[in-house]
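Notes to self after the Tuesday call (sharing in case useful).
The group wants a holo model before anyone commits to mutagenesis around the pocket. I volunteered. Ligand is guanine. Logging inputs and output together so the record is complete.
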Amino acid sequence: MTRLAIRADLLDFTADPGWAASNDNTPGLRWRPGHWLLIENGRIGGVQRDAPDAAWTQQDRRGKLLMPGFIDTHVHMPQLEVIASYGTELLHWLETYTFPAELRYADPAVCAAGSSRFLDALLMHGTTSAVVFPTVHKASVDALFTAAEQRGMRLIAGKCLMDRNAPPGLTDTLDSAERDSLDLIQRWHGKGRLAYAHTVRFAPTSSDAQLALAGRLLAAHPGTYLQTHVAENRDELNWVAELFPDARSYLDVYARHGLVGPRSVLAHGVWLDAEDRALLGREGAQMAHCPSSNLFLGSGLADWRALEDAGAAVSLASDVGGGTSLSMLRTMADAYKVQALRGVRLPAWKALYAATRGAAVALGLEREIGSFDLGCVADCVAWEYAVGPVASVRDAAATSLHERIFALMTLGDERNVMATYVAGRCLVGA
Ligand code: GUN
Ligand code: ZN
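Result:
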């Protein structure tokens, strides 16, 4: 039995705090300052005010913040190399920077090095779980799952399905896609904390037959997920309309093949219409909102509230390398700005919920990740409230908890991470 107790200001959520939530008594917010989080064999065993007895290893982080590790619901493992690439919108960016970078992942050694680097970077940024795009290459999935297993991380991923409109060397075929997917599902899905996601890159790079295959695989393998991009950019939207003239909308291309359901994680959704949003709500699908990517690539401003009003779950995602930081705090700060341009203010509670318990609920994983509920796996991160003179003076001036945490969300990043724990093991910091 391993027993670790951490004292800090514990912040997590028991429910969605909603939008009108800028005060400190918001329902759903659970704030336990200066408490001990008890971790037994990697799981949350309790929370208490008093120090535990000598049977427990104690880490006293008094005055620091401890939250559940963040969940990034859409991010690309092979794209650290192309983050911050200048000057283009989505389709040109893919061709110019992203596809060439992903071609290098035909080499298993590149996959192994890239996967380790990527997961270590996530952990350094305070993210302990993610829904990840590797590349079309089977070796990239093997390498990513191997690296996640070594670190004990909860990870969802699967090989990219793309059988057209991409360079040779970055495409599969109907047969190879099915063979590779089945082999990967059999070897990795449900192994430890890993789950498989059928990974349709986006509608333009899959034939109708391949989309149908993805639908069959999703239906045939309970517990697997579906991830893809949808309605991110206007040129992309026009291209999809040309490629799929019978579809009512971009989302409909996926819906026709059974790809929009409770286990679907759809990135972006900037250019959805009301009928699309209603479909997402009816089917219980999840939108991964990627504000930094949408700003950087000039894609547009996703309508978080309209999605939620239609019943769709909305989580937060970095979408690196279209996004410009793996930090979920920076992602939240960008989400605030995107929503502000739509005339909506995003409370810190709502943003933090979306990156922790909200994402966990949407993924069907709330009994494992996203909160300090008893029995959950102890994936958590200790944070400095403020780093540097500007953040420090702002922090000192805060007169409410929301004000303080909102300043952290707006000014903070990976420099604020003191320690990252996965299943109670400290993998970053000390
Ligand atoms: N659409 C298809 N592929 C990609 C990708 O790699 N990044 C983003 N942001 N959008 C995509
Ligand atoms: Zn993406």
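Two things stood out.
The chain has a mean pLDDT of 98.
The pocket of guanine (ligand 1) is lined by residues 76, 90, 94, 98, 201-202, 229, 232, 293, 319, 322 (CB under 6 Å).
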